[in-house]
Amino acid sequence: DTAVSQTPKYLVTQMGNDKSIKCEQNLGHDTMYWYKQDSKKFLKIMFSYNNKELIINETVPNRFSPKSPDKAHLNLHINSLELGDSAVYFCASSLSRTGELFFGEGSRLTVL
Amino acid sequence: KNQVEQSPQSLIILEGKNCTLQCNYTVSPFSNLRWYKQDTGRGPVSLTIMTFSENTKSNGRYTATLDADTKQSSLHITASQLSDSASYICVVRSNAGKSTFGDGTTLTVKP
């Protein structure tokens, strides 16, 4: 059983399109995250969502919008895609008490 | 500002050799420090966690150390294997629950 699963694994799309990446965790964790890993392999936090509280990283453009239908899911919707959005996006989850992050396998987004 | 700095940025060693990766941080108040291993094309996986009272902890061939006074940690890899080739990321968590990531060290083990 996959602990943190995200789909799709690969996504190639044109500039200006809107796309979504889905994430699900079956670990019973109370906090979920989205991270962006750029070409230099630096992992940067985008959002964290603990129960009903969404914490937004102020450097993330408002074209990015997370949506959490329940504690086990945190989806990422991106509007008006730009070339600079090309990256690998990682979903992760944790228990707020311990903070150990469990990552998905990543979704590689390529914007042409 | 909370920061985590890792060195070296990249490292190439021969199979069977040992190596040590460094992590310096300014995160305060400190809660814990984790080392993650990220294989190419995969998500990071936790290797070890260090809390304030712990000086050293081993996980197989990986040994992490923590000096809370100087705010430094190291990850020592013994008898390296080809499968150790990966990025190693130091993540420091504050008491407020916020995690700060280092930029990682890319290790390449050559036969």
Could you characterize what this model shows?
The complex is a heterodimer of chains A (112) and B (111). Chain A has strands at 4-7, 10-13, 19-25, 31-37, 43-50, 53-56, 64-70, 73-78, 87-94, 102-103, 107-111. Chain A has 112 residues and is mainly beta. In chain A, strands 2, 4, 5, 6, 9, 10 and 11 form a seven-stranded mixed beta sheet that branches. Chain A has a four-stranded antiparallel beta sheet with strand order 1-3-8-7, with no helix packed on it. Chain B has 111 residues and is mainly β.
Distinctive features:
heterodimer; A: 112 residues; mainly beta; seven-stranded mixed sheet; four-stranded antiparallel sheet; 0% helix; B: 111 residues; six-stranded mixed sheet; five-stranded antiparallel sheet; 11 strands
Radius of gyration of chain A over all CA atoms, rounded: 13 Å
The rounded distance between the terminal residues' Cα atoms of chain B is 41 Å
Helix fraction of chain A by DSSP (H/I, runs of at least 4): under 10%
Overall residue-averaged pLDDT value of chain B: 95
How many strands in all of chain B? 11
Low-pLDDT residue spans of chain A: none
Q: Report the mean per-residue pLDDT of chain A as an integer.
A: 92
Main beta sheet of chain B: strand number and arrangement? 6 strands, mixed
Into which percentage range does the β-strand content of chain A fall? over 45%
The computed structural class of chain B is mainly beta
The shape of chain A, in one word, is globular
- The CA-CA distance between the termini of chain A, in Å, is 34 Å
Low-confidence stretches of chain B: none
Order of helices and strands of chain A: EEEEEEEEEEE
Task: Figure out the total of helices of chain B.
Answer: 0
Taken as a percent bin, the fraction of beta residues of chain B is over 45%
Shape assignment of chain B: globular
User: How large, in whole angstroms, is the Cα Rg of chain B?
Assistant: 13 Å
**Greatest interface and its participating residue counts:** A-B, 18 and 22 residues
H/E element sequence of chain B? EEEEEEEEEEE
